[in-house]
Amino acid sequence: MATGDASGTWGTVTNTNLELIAEAFGFGTEAISTNANTHTSTIADGATDPVRAMYVKYTGALDSDCTITIAPNTLNRVHIIENATTDSGGSGPYNIIIKQGSGATVTIANGQVSAVYLDGAGSGAAVADALTDLSIAGTFNAAADIVAAGTLQAAGDTAAGDDAAIGYTSALGIIVTGQGSTNDITLVNDADATVLSVPTGTVNVDIVGVATAATFEPDGDTAAGDDAAIGYTSAEGLILTGQGSTNDVTLKNDADADVLVVPTGTTNVDIVGVTTAATFEPDGDTAAGDNAAIGYTAAEGLILTGQGSTSDVTIKNDADATVASIATGTTILTVNDDVTVVGRAIGSTITAENDATYDLATANNFTTTTAGSVTMTFTNKAAGQSGSIKFVNGGNHTVSAHADVAINADILTALSATGTYFVTYYVTAASGNNTILVGATAILT
Questions:
Q1: pLDDT tens digits along 257-304
Q2: How far apart are CA 368 and CA 177, in angstroms?
Q3: Report field, pTM of the whole predicted structure over 0.70
Q4: Would you state the pLDDT for residue 347?
Q5: E strands of 206-318, at which residues?
Q6: Pair 250, 269: CB distance under 8 Å
Q7: How far apart are alpha carbons 324 and 338 in whole angstroms?
Q8: Contact at 8 Å (CB) between 117 and 111?
Q9: Do 100 and 119 form a contact (C-beta atoms < 8 A)?
Q10: Residue 356 confidence (pLDDT)
Q11: Which stretches does DSSP call E strand in 43-172?
Q12: Which of 91, 149, 248, 411 is spaced 20 to 30 A from 289 at the CA atom?
């Protein structure tokens, strides 16, 4: 009021002004229109207004961040502002952004409180965080949550007597010190469940859940008394040590099934499933007592040793059918089916069939010396089989051919004369007339 103003109402105006001054030190709340993206709080001149209060709580339901302009832009003051808005859209909660003019703004997250000041610079007015670089010289005790937009920097060491303290030294860096009846330090998650603890009076760290890291590098050896430990030495490299009633070390898959075990007190390794590798190189000989073993010596090369009631060694295909086997206690190799040779096959067996009946299951190459008339016959044929026959006619014995044999009549006539001949055959089908092609040279001797 100017000198001489408000005659007769001076008391009322003065009381109002004093009340407004008191209001500026109080608490006010203002609701933002539902789902508003912007909101303006204009502090009334000469009348009560919730935003005149030093502490202002903003309420209302939002579906996005909301920018709040505090007017007039010439107002210079400090505000404590709380974001108490709720989420109307299901994707929040949302921030409120405090501004005054075209200058800087301060963002307050939902559920948080910030102390800000308005510089009142007119159209370019700015809002600043009043607690930026806050320095606390003594001990700071927080009964509620503290949220810092920047950093909290401790400037001194903690002490053994601290119940709970955060400190810093240039040598140790950040220091967390505490003392409790169970743990000295406990980290908990947002469900108040323990994540990591340092048991009271120990230097042990107990991690409750899963520990993940790009790498984990132990820096010391394990000991025989360790229940389960991972260690390292420059000589041995990574070390796994354990002791259990059945196994000392057990590796499992994600179904909790054993993959590899080291039975208790042994140096054996038992691989439960299939083992695959680019190469597998055994470095020692097998022994007669081995049930099944793969070995190597410089003299013998790769060695397969086994012992079974029927076979010592059995090779099977993917249908679990036997391909080849060595009968128990023998040196006989039995091949159960056809043998396909990509290169050259050299046979050491030449079978005598003097009656000219050739069992193709017994050999490929034969000799025949006739003592009388014969009919050239082939049994147990397999398509693709071929071979040779040294054919000796002992005395003008007539040679004829089975219907399966395709042979030139003149060749049969020639073979019926006394002499030695070189005969070849080729099987085109396992059965049928004219399926065995036969040729012969002229008389050799």
A1: 999 999 999 988 999 988 888 998 999 999 988 999 999 999 999 999
A2: 102
A3: no
A4: 66
A5: 206-207, 228-233, 237-242, 247-252, 258-263, 270-271, 292-297, 301-306, 311-316
A6: no
A7: 11
A8: no
A9: yes
A10: 97
A11: 55-59, 61-62, 66-71, 77-83, 86-87, 96-99, 106-108, 113-118, 127-129, 164-169
A12: 248
Q: Residue 140 — φ and ψ, nearest 5°? A: -110, 120
Q: CA 164 from chain center: how many Å?
A: 39
CB atoms within 10 A of CB 170: 5
Given a cut of 90, whether residue 155 has pLDDT beyond it is: no
Q: Can you point out the beta strands (E) in 25-108?
A: 27-31, 38-42, 55-59, 61-62, 66-71, 77-83, 86-87, 96-99, 106-108
Which three-class secondary structure state does DSSP give residue 18? helix
Going from the C-alpha of 126 to that of each of 44, 190, 314, the distances in angstroms are 20, 36, 88
Contact, 416 vs 395, CB < 8 A?
no
pLDDT digits (tens, 9 = 90+) for 367-390: 999 999 999 999 999 999 999 999
Other Cβ atoms within 10 Å of 263 Cβ, number = 15
User: Is there a contact between 59 and 81 (Cβ–Cβ < 8 Å)?
Assistant: no
Distance (Å) of CA 24 to CA 20, 130, 385: 6, 17, 111
Rounded CA gap, 18 and 422, in Å?
136
What are the pLDDT digits (tens) for 28-46?
A: 999 999 999 999 999 998 8
> 241 has which bridge partners?
229
What gap in Å lies between CA 132 and CA 151, rounded to an integer? 9
Stretch 223-237: mean pLDDT, rounded? 93
Asked, as a colleague might, if the bond just before 218 is cis with ω within 30 of 0, I would say: no
Q: Which class for 98: exposed (0-12), middle (13-18), buried (19 or more C-beta within 10 A)?
A: buried
Q: For the residues 396-403, what does the mean pLDDT come to?
A: 97
User: In the block, which residue shows the tokens 């579906």?
Assistant: 63
Tokens 């409750």 locate to 208
Residue 321's Cβ-count burial label (10 Å; 0-12, 13-18, 19+) is exposed
Average pLDDT, the chain: 92
**What pLDDT sits at residue 340?**
85
